[in-house]
Write a structure and sequence with these properties.
seven-stranded parallel beta sheet, Rossmann fold, 18% strand, two-stranded parallel sheet, 296 residues, alpha/beta, 11 helices, globular
């Protein structure tokens, strides 16, 4: 079976590429704008392709998907398109969806974000869910995983938290810090993604996944602070807006993480927890771990 990972140079794409090569016999095609950033062991070269293609260019992405049976879709554009990432992500999903359909790709596995569609979603989460809607227009077998923060080295949301805890002696948290979240460890997320290749489905599926603990954001910050043996003073300011809170991020981390963080802050007002048992029903053998096991 031939698998494509679209967005393979990102955090999740790189981790999944390595994980599938090490734990399956699948043929893998990595598709990204930065193929030079992806490295694999020589012993896997016979079942690995590394292709440069732009998901906004019809011919490039269509050519890259030739011969593919199943595709993973991990496209996020908050880093490069701070103000209009929603429009760019929508265009990318449309272009890629058409290419997937024209190439006869049977199934798409997509990583989205937790959040209740009936609520007032942030622009970031609304874009994640909109992408899933677009992919379902073109491919019947879509498995859309919805997750909160993925805990692992290189995860933008996790690296933002690590930079803040390591560099800010006083941490001021805005009004959303009492909102509930359910982070998941990278290895658990990868296991769900791997198993999604083989499971039988009769309709498009939205599968909410999360780790073993539900907590508020302020509880998460305290938990990770204690793990890092830091003495940060944490102050919650209920009237502090997300926009103002984001102003300090460029002082604490590189510009890419800061830009992503500023766009993600508004998402934290939305509760990001698992609300149904679909993950357990489809993946009964996966038992997510506590997030402390993935802290670094």
């Amino acid at each position: 079976m031939h698998i494509a990972i679209i967005g393979a140079s990102g955090f999740l794409g790189k981790n999944l590429t390595k994980y599938l090569l090490e734990n399956t016999d699948l043929e893998i095609t990595a598709i990204s704008l930065e193929p030079e950033s992806i490295s694999i062991e020589d012993k896997y070269q016979n079942r690995f392709k590394n292709i440069k293609a732009d998901v906004l260019r019809d011919e490039e992405i269509s050519r890259a998907l030739s011969g593919i049976d199943i595709a993973y879709y991990f496209i996020h554009m908050m880093t490069n398109y701070k103000n209009n990432f929603y429009d760019k992500e929508e265009a990318a999903a449309e272009t890629t969806g058409k290419a997937l359909k024209s190439n006869g790709v049977k199934r798409v596995i997509y990583m989205s974000g937790l959040g209740n569609d009936s609520k007032d979603l942030s622009k970031h989460l609304a874009s994640r869910h909109n992408t899933g809607d677009i992919l379902r227009k073109y491919i019947h077998e879509v498995i859309e995983f919805r997750a909160s923060m993925i805990i692992g080295e290189g995860s933008a949301s996790f690296e933002i938290a690590r930079n803040i805890i390591d560099k800010a002696p006083i941490i001021t948290l805005p009004r959303w810090s009492k909102t509930k979240t359910q982070p998941i460890g990278i290895t658990d997320a990868l296991l769900y993604l791997k198993e999604a290749v083989e499971i039988k489905i009769s309709k498009p599926e939205i599968v909410e996944i999360g780790g073993g603990d539900v907590m508020s954001y302020v509880e998460f910050v305290k938990k990770y602070r204690d793990y890092r043996h830091k003495k940060n003073i944490i102050i919650r300011i209920p009237f502090l807006s997300e926009r103002v809170a984001g102003k300090s991020l460029p002082l604490l981390m590189n510009k890419n993480y800061a830009r992503v963080g500023q766009n993600m802050l508004s998402s934290f007002r939305n509760e990001m927890i698992v609300t149904n048992n679909r993950a357990r029903e489809l993946f009964p053998n996966i038992n997510p771990h506590k997030i402390e096991e993935f802290f670094i």
